[in-house]
């Protein structure tokens, strides 16, 4: 039976037309190389090379076999590559939904951990609102969602994976910018950019904090996403309160100051998943996602 080692040895000699150079290319000595060629010729029953003390030449049979030998080696390389690629995906595949707010800190952290610790799992990320992620879980479109706290029903489960403080975002030249820790009461009557109903979690959190503390800022605009809110702060239209990780957004003329809305008031991020999901890779991803809990 023809062996790949014999075919590789023949191609090397055919390319070099010199046993010494071919042996060096294959990182072996000449005697075992000559033996490989002899075994191949014996198996095929034909002479592939004419060798003298001064030269090496291909026979007619050798020239005909050389083309097929190259194809055979290429096919072997492709087969090995395909097997290794399949093995790399043996750990499974998962789809993760996420809200835009995760992109400032948590999502990059999770993506890095997945890359380093779960290299055998193929991950697909998809940006969706919290409501869209619930629908995607029900249909099986995603395996895990990253959302602001939202009401769920069985078989969908929800648990906190990350929580962060709040920060006051204000124009660089605003009088409050000189204060290291402004109080919520300092926002009384200040032009304020609020979360719109399209950002229900943060809108409810801020509304409750203002009501509890009896503070009435002057709401001049309302936006659903922190990115849009900060763009208006940068333009000098007002102040805003955003999750602390939003500091990682790059905006000129915006400074951030820590601010307390009340005891134990944080912005939370939850993971949601179906308890009846049988994807064997999901528990590994879920365990990794919960490491950020703080």
What does this structure look like?
GO terms for molecular function: DNA binding; DNA-binding transcription factor activity. Residues 2-59 form the HTH lysR-type domain. This protein has nine helices and twelve strands. It is α/β, with parallel strands linked by helices and 294 residues long. It folds into three domains: 4-88, Winged helix-like DNA-binding domain superfamily/Winged helix DNA-binding domain (Arc Repressor Mutant, subunit A), CATH 1.10.10; 93-163 and 268-292, Periplasmic binding protein-like II (D-Maltodextrin-Binding Protein, domain 2), CATH 3.40.190.10; 166-263, D-Maltodextrin-Binding Protein, domain 2 (3-Layer(aba) Sandwich), CATH 3.40.190. Strands 4-3-5-12-6 form a five-stranded mixed beta sheet, with helices on both faces. The relative contact order is 0.14.
């Amino acid at each position: 039976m023809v062996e790949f080692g014999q075919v590789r040895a023949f191609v090397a000699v055919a390319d070099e037309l010199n046993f010494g150079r071919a042996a060096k290319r294959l990182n072996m000595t000449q005697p075992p190389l000559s033996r490989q060629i002899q075994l191949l010729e014996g198996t095929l029953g034909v002479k592939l090379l004419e060798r003298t003390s001064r030269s090496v030449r291909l026979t007619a049979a050798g020239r005909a076999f050389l083309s097929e030998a190259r194809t055979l080696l290429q096919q072997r390389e492709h087969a090995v590559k395909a097997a290794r690629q399949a093995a790399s995906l043996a750990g499974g595949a998962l789809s993760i939904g996420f809200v835009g707010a995760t992109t400032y800190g948590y999502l990059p952290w999770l993506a890095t951990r997945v890359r380093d610790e779960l290299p055998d799992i193929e991950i697909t990320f998809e940006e969706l609102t919290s409501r869209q992620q619930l629908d995607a879980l029900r249909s099986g479109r995603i395996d895990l969602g990253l959302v602001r706290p939202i009401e769920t029903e069985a078989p969908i489960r929800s648990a906190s994976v990350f929580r962060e403080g709040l920060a006051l975002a204000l124009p660089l030249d605003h009088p409050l910018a000189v204060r290291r820790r402004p109080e919520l009461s300092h926002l009384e009557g200040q032009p304020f950019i609020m979360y719109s109903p399209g950002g229900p979690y943060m809108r409810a959190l801020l509304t409750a904090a203002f009501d509890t503390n009896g503070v009435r800022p002057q709401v001049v605009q309302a936006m659903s996403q922190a990115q849009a809110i900060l763009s208006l702060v940068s333009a000098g239209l007002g102040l805003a309160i955003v999750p602390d990780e939003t500091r990682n957004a790059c905006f000129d003329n915006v400074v951030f100051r820590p601010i307390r809305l009340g005891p134990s008031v944080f912005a939370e991020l939850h993971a949601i998943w179906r308890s009846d999901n049988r994807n064997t890779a999901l528990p590994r991803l879920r365990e990794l996602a919960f490491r950020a809990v703080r």
